[in-house]
């Protein structure tokens, strides 16, 4: 056997040895890789079970909500849409692009948003129409210090007052049409509550198109607060109180309530 053949034979042995070593190494690496992948997979699954696939819950409960406006500047805040009670509701003013939003406090993976509409609408709710800054008139002024606007200044100690005349009246312009259901009339607190009697309350979209809301015979007492409900809701922008007699009309305060 020549020396050249021995070298080749020796190289074959070396080749086999190296090949075996490589195969062994690959198997070890495969096992380690397999183990790493198993650990990684378990890690992902654990994370998913806690943060992604975990139990779905209401992340908005108790969080801070806001909305683009409050109805009449004070009613139905955004938080009423998160109080867990479907009998209450949030409500904006009538406006362009109204919006409501909630700050969840941190990042969440949101999977579902449930929105509930008002359960009962809308005849269940009447609310005071803000009269601040609204236009008022009366049939005459007893004195300049008793203007018609004294009846909507929020102060029970000030009052409007007409002259003694036939069919005195007081009229309010709400600025927009409401579905009016109730009027509260506050008599003077110092005296003369009995000035309020035989009073018609009429409501309408224009002063030429008015409908009787209700009639109050009276007379009222000093400091009395009259709650006068329309027999049925009346769509109106103007609210007029008039006495069908020769009388004075004096009103400490008037409040109008309408359906939302
Ligand atoms: Ca007043």
TrEMBL record:
One of its GO terms (biological process) is regulation of complement activation, lectin pathway. It comes from the Eukaryota. GO terms for molecular function: fucose binding; metal ion binding. Keywords: Calcium, Coiled coil, Disulfide bond, Lectin, Metal-binding. Residues 126-260 form the Fucolectin tachylectin-4 pentraxin-1 domain. Residues 8-42 form a coiled coil. Signal peptide: none annotated. It holds the Pfam family F5_F8_type_C_2. InterPro entries: BG_Antigen-Binding_Lectin, FTP1, Galactose-bd-like_sf. Belongs to the fucolectin family. Acts as a defensive agent. Recognizes blood group fucosylated oligosaccharides including A, B, H and Lewis B-type antigens. Does not recognize Lewis A antigen and has low affinity for monovalent haptens. Homotrimer. PANTHER family: F5_8 TYPE C DOMAIN-CONTAINING PROTEIN, FTP DOMAIN-CONTAINING PROTEIN. This is Fucolectin tachylectin-4 pentraxin-1 domain-containing protein. The lineage of its organism: Eukaryota, Metazoa, Spiralia, Lophotrochozoa, Mollusca.
């Amino acid at each position: 056997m020549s020396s050249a053949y021995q070298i080749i034979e020796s190289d074959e042995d070396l080749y086999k040895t190296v090949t075996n070593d490589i195969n062994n190494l690959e198997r070890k690496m495969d096992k380690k890789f397999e183990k790493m992948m198993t650990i990684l997979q378990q890690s992902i699954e654990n994370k998913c079970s806690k943060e992604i696939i975990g139990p779905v819950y209401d992340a908005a409960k108790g969080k801070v909500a806001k909305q683009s406006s409050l109805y009449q500047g004070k009613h139905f805040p955004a938080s009423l849409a998160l109080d867990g009670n479907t009998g209450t509701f949030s409500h904006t003013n009538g406006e362009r692009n109204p919006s409501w939003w909630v700050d969840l406090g941190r990042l969440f993976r949101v999977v579902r948003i449930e929105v509930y509409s008002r359960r009962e609408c809308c005849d269940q709710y009447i609310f005071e129409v803000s009269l601040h800054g609204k236009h008022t008139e009366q049939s005459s002024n007893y004195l300049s210090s008793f203007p018609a606007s004294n009846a909507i200044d929020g102060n029970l100690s000030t009052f409007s007052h007409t002259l003694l005349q036939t069919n005195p009246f007081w009229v309010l312009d709400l600025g927009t049409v409401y579905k009016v259901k109730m009027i509260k009339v506050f008599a003077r607190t110092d005296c003369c509550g009995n000035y309020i009697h035989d009073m018609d309350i009429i409501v309408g979209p224009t002063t030429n198109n008015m409908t009787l809301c209700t009639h109050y015979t009276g007379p009222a007492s000093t400091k009395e607060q009259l709650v006068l409900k329309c027999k049925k809701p009346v769509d109106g922008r103007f609210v007029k109180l008039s006495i069908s007699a020769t009388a004075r009309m004096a009103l400490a305060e008037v409040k109008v309530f309408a359906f939302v």
